[in-house]
Amino acid sequence: MQTQDYIDLEEQYGAHNYHPLDVVLTRGEGVWVYDVESNRYFDCLSAYSALNQGHVHPKILAAMLEQAGRITLTSRAFRNDQLGLFYKELCELSGYEMALPMNTGAEAVETAIKVARKWAYRVKGLKRYKAEIITFNGNFHGRTVTIVSFSNEELYREDFGPFTPGFTRIPYGDPQALIEAINVNTIAVLIEPIQGEAGVIMPPAGFLKTVRDACTRYGVLMIADEIQTGLGRTGKLFACQHEGVRPDLVILGKALSGGFYPVSAVLGDRNIMGLLRPGEHGSTFGGNPLAAAVARASLRVLVEENMIQNAAEVGQYFIEQLAEIPSPYVKEVRGKGLLIGVELKVGAGGARRFCKALMAQKILAKDTHEHVIRFAPPLITDKATVDWAIERIRPVLNMG
Ligand SMILES: *Cc1c(COP(=O)(O)O)cnc(C)c1O
């Protein structure tokens, strides 16, 4: 079978809920992926930051194989010898007291919402079912009905109501709007430290600190969705740490498993996370021994192999090199660490045609929100690979 045959199968039998670039990948190693015609590409998407550790990291693979040969699933009806160690290592690394494991990012977001509501009724003393959570324009937190209820992206919502109440939405990065939005029923502010899906949108400097301070002042929980920005992506373990901010709850997913397996988690201290009682929340696969073993190895290599520091250094270099490319199309290059957005001018004809041209140059990147090309390669990318990429991005940003 060749590229077109695989594409035809997907088109015929699969629901068309994505619009992928027409490259059919069959193998990955580090920052590189290979298609079925043996072309090699530099992966600048990293599965939306699920592959911070690179493709098929050998140590995570070894941990997964070892665990898969022993026991994969116990359900939480029984205990297993990986979960406790995963909790401990994740908590020690992150500086939180407790964790709750789920599978996908969206499930972890739902979990954080439930925990925050429980806290509001049991600790804050709010009247039942009055809880309101403040969210931001341009947010992306996943695809469940509740989560799309507070999205302002028409495409995500249009045909999927009725929606879940209990959310308001304000402009991202606007401190005044935040203060005005907080009222007696506000229980939490749910924020992405950088809005990845919205096009690598960075809030003004100091905004995360403003959110933290407002939350503390009004007795409201700050919930950071670090599913895309966390685990080293921006050059720190969590993007909130760039402003010295410690949220009450942190949501992780994606790179928590180094791309091997869906693993997500909510982190928080005992006064919040300790409120859940048996039976109130759960997941058949959440916290299974295979997930826990894979996540433990994923965290270990992130730290041991210095990937977070590398993201800071190589990311800054990548941003500088991109910014130096003269181009009639580029409006702005922005980002932190290895989460980088190149915003194109409106007249450039949209980011997708640039992503197709990049693919022809053996670089895989994805357009996000029409006019932004996101560059988010694995955190193990070195400067030589950035140099290699820049030579190929240069002509694309100057094509006819
Ligand atoms: C990817 C993502 C999610 C959803 O994660 P899934 O695993 O796709 O459910 C939520 N929030 C952010 C910021 C994300 O990038």
Please characterize this protein's 3D structure.
This protein is an alpha/beta fold and 400 residues long. The chain folds into two domains: 3-56 and 306-396, Alpha-Beta Complex (Aspartate Aminotransferase, domain 1); 58-304, 3-Layer(aba) Sandwich (Aspartate Aminotransferase, domain 2), CATH 3.40.640. It is built from 14 helices and 15 strands. The chain has helices at residues 3-13, 46-49, 58-68, 83-94, 105-124, 145-149, 154-157, 175-181, 207-218, 270-273, 289-304, 307-323, 351-360, 383-396, and strands at residues 25-29, 32-35, 40-43, 98-102, 132-136, 167-170, 186-191, 221-225, 249-252, 264-268, 330-336, 339-344, 363-364, 366-368, 372-375. The strands form three sheets. It has a seven-stranded mixed sheet with strand order 4-10-9-8-7-5-6, with helices on both faces. The protein is globular, with a radius of gyration of 21 Å. The two termini are 34 Å apart. Pyridoxal-5'-phosphate is lined by residues 48, 104-106, 109, 140-142, 192, 196-197, 225, 227-228, 253-254. Pyridoxal-5'-phosphate binds at residues 48, 104-106, 109, 140-142, 192, 196-197, 225, 227-228, 253-254.
